[in-house]
Amino acid sequence: MYVYDEHDRQIAAERVAQFRDQTDRALAGELAEEEFLPLRLQNGLYVQRLAPMLRIAVPYGMMRSNQLRRLARISRDYDKGYAHFTTRQNVQLNWPNLEDVPDILAELAEVEMHANQTSGNCIRNTTTDQFAGVQDDEIADPRPYCEIIRQWSTFHPEFAFLPRKFKVAVNASEKTDRAAIQVHDIGLQIVRNEAGDLGFRVHVGGGLGRTPMVAPVIREFLPELDLLTYLEAVLRVYNRYGRRDNKFKARIKILVKALTPAGFADKVEAEWAHIKDSPTKLTRDAIDRIKSYFTEPSYVSLENASDLLAKQRFENRAFDQWLSHNVDTHKKPGYSIVNLTIKETGTPPGDVTDRQMEQIADLADEYSFGEIRVTHQQNVVLADVRQDRLFELWQAIVPMGFGTANLNTLTDVICCPGGDYCALANAKSIPVAEAIQRRFDDLDYLYDLGNIDLNISGCMNACGHHHVGNIGVLGVDKKGEEFYQISLGGSSHHDASIGKILGPSFAREAMPDVIAKIIDVYVGRRTEEETFLDTYRRIGIDPFKESVYA
Amino acid sequence: MPEIVLHNGSIKQDDWVVVPRPEEGESLNVPDQKALIPADLWLAGYERYAGRADIGVWLDSHQEPESLGDKVNELPVIAVNFPKFTDGRGYSIARILRERLGFENELRAIGDVLLDQLQFMKRCGFNSYALRPDKDIQKAAKCLGFFTQGYQAATDTDTPLFRRRAG
Ligand code: HEM
Ligand code: SF4
Questions:
Q1: Contact A414/A342 with Cβ under 8 angstroms?
Q2: What domain of life does the native source organism fall in (chain B) (predicted)?
Q3: Please, where are the H alpha helices in A345-486?
């Protein structure tokens, strides 16, 4: 994992001092609210329904155990003792005091953490696959490139006041996309060209929110060393020509659409021609240096523990289910990737208490080289667990609430905080997730249904990614009452697509029944190998409509 | 006379006046002192203005610095207007003027220029700042100097941190 050197430490300390000064000036009335707003947002500080909210960056979702322990302590000392893992791989505190934020930032800086650019109209935290570096289907480890982008985007002087927020995601697997790159402003797919050189396929102009779009490809192959100059060209074109007259039309996706992807690409190429060989061009040396932080942990040489696991599975059905669903294959023999689901029915998806954070930190130390990853599905990954210790780990996590063996099933819901916390919400989303989890409480049935992404957002900002859920639920407001609109057929993977709206919305009480009817159509019409999405794509939306609105 | 801040944080009297764009049907009224006129009007009246040490131009945030082309260094001052401090186009304009067009003279930020943006302006190549009058000019030096270094190459340094680390 990346470790700060004296430069990073100095910049982090200077940032804390700067924000302390800004907060002092805001509290002294020297900064108007509208002047302080973008400054505090660039430090992750929202003012929310009940209190401020602080969004802390977890670069590309990776943390060390001491960092998570510090988050636990901060949430206890400055907040109500819990935090929230978000779909952007960050961590949010829901109730800090404004006056305390500079101190919180200072505490974070001590463990090489920060809240820089987690909000506001600037380049946000770059996200990636939570399995980066540990599965063998990736072309190259995406994390060094994420770190390179992190450094380049941090306090970039030209891009701190963009028309709108800007998100970059990187994916490296040919088989799958766990980073949802095609619904980001820039999605980078790591590829090799015919000559075998490493580079990126560049998607620009995806995003959710009010006008959801899947990002078109604007460059099939960008050589590795050109990464930053090309990003700089894209951002410069966006900064200069993106719409600023209307907040809803200010995202880069609108510009790409207006110019057409080819027209936009031409503008970027023209800009890039001027800066391609500028000092921002990466060097082999710089890449190697960053890569040296992402070398493998000290794995021991092991055989796969197949016999042992077979025996343990045979003796314990619940362990067997967990192993089948929450544990993934690892590139190293004898190791596995463990997904801790933070989806116990009755707790809001992604919410963790201070005690749980400490438990996760302890588990990471004990079982996974002290390293933790946050996923965009609001779960946690221990990436390097010895297979011969899986049973022991599983026994430890079940009482902690992380052992629900429902990864990627219908009840592994992505859910935004909605009306319970968020000032922008049209409707609550947490109780909807819970009602659906209660309705589908039979694991065998869930397994039979296979992978289904159910995503819930409390308003069209789409923090819960509802557009790209196989089943999406969107909170809507009708004359002051909360209703829910359903969309079907979304996907955030390589076959990314935006879900189609089913029809009129439903009252909250009706939601579990509606979902059940949708599921019944799938069960009735699927062929043996089909996932929900396959069946939907084959039969279209009408059969679902007919059943739900019958 | 109003004061401006220089990139090293020092403060000096400002002897330039910004001439607003004339209304439709009116003509440009250039005063009898150092004046910054709209860049497109300077180009339109090039014969008249070129080479004058008392005439500079200002660009608005939607305008194209490229339009000044290789004439930039005939201008003693180019100002870039920030109609709103959240309008970040001026940063890109500044870098293009400095790095692409090779502008070497005074590059000034005007308009909604606040303290917390000065550091970004400096890195993008501005070397004077007409702070919004209600802001405390005495705090400018501090705000210009919060950071002793940046990660990126920009106008102030052509060695991004990754190159310095290598050295
Ligand atoms: C609680 C306070 C929150 C506020 C005020 C808030 C605000 C917003 C707003 C205004 C947007 C719309 C952006 C657009 O137009 O595209 C947005 C989008 C988004 N937010 Fe949040 N959000 C909050 C919490 C969260 C949380 C908890 C998560 C993660 C669980 C999250 C993740 C996202 C994501 C992924 C998007 C999608 C944007 C896109 O790709 O287009 N937000 N949020
Ligand atoms: S989707 Fe809407 S309700 Fe949910 S967190 Fe985002 S802004 Fe709030």
A1: no
A2: Bacteria
A3: 354-367, 390-397, 430-439, 443-449
Domain ranges, residue B134: 3-166
Burial class (CB in 10 A: 0-12, 13-18, 19+), A534: middle
Cβ atoms of B33 and B56 within 8 Å: the answer is no
Q: Which residues contact B157 (CB under 8 A, 6 or more apart)?
A: B150
Q: How many other CB atoms sit within 10 Å of the CB of residue A241?
A: 18
Contacts of B61 (CB under 8 A, 6+ apart): B80, B81, B82, B83, B87, B89, B90, B93
Q: Where are the beta strands (DSSP E) in A274-417?
A: 327-329, 335-340, 351-353, 371-374, 380-386, 414-415
User: Nearest by CB to B146, which of A17, A25, A240?
Assistant: A17
Task: Single out the residue of B7, B4, B9, B32 nearest to residue B19, CA to CA.
Answer: B32
Give the total number of structural domains in chain B. Answer: 1
Cα torsion through A86, A89, A94, A97, rounded to 10: -160
Whose tokens are 């699927």? That residue is: A526
Strand partners, A483: A476, A507
AA letter at A287: I
Angle A275-A280-A284 (CA atoms, 0-180°, nearest 5)?
A: 120
Q: How far is A169 from chain B (nearest CA, A)?
A: 20
Measured CA to CA, the distance from residue A235 to residue A251 in angstroms comes to 12
Chain B residues with beta carbon closer than 8 angstroms to that of A25: 115
This complex has an ipTM of: 0.97
Q: Which residues pair with A207 in a beta bridge?
A: A213
Q: How many CB atoms lie within 10 A of CB A266?
A: 14
pLDDT tens-place string over residues A114-154 = 999 999 999 999 999 999 999 999 999 999 999 999 999 99
C-alpha distances in angstroms, B95 versus A142, A269, B83?
Answer: 30, 18, 18
pLDDT band of residue A219 (cuts 50, 70, 90) is very high
Nearest CA in chain B to A234: B92
Predicted pLDDT at A547: 97
Q: What H or E segment, with its residue span, contains residue B163?
A: helix B161-166
- Residues with a CB atom less than 6 Å from ligand 2: A 416-418, 422, 424-425, 457-459, 461-464
Give the position, in ligand 1's atom list, of the atom nearest the Cα of A417. Answer: 27
Task: Decide if A419 contacts A482 (C-beta within 8 A).
Answer: yes
Which of B144, B108, B104, B98 lies closest to B129, judged by CA?
Answer: B108
* A317 exposure class (CB count in 10 Å sphere: 0-12, 13-18, 19+): exposed
Calculate how close chain B gets to A529, using CA atoms only, in Å. Answer: 49
Between the CA of A450 and the centroid of ligand 2 the distance, in Å, is 28
- pLDDT (tens digit, 9 = 90+) per residue, A191-208? 999 999 999 999 999 999
Characterize A400-409 residue by residue with b for buried, 16 or more Cβ atoms within 10 angstroms of its Cβ, and e for exposed: ebbbbbbbbb
- The span from the CA of B103 to the CA of B100, in Å, is 8
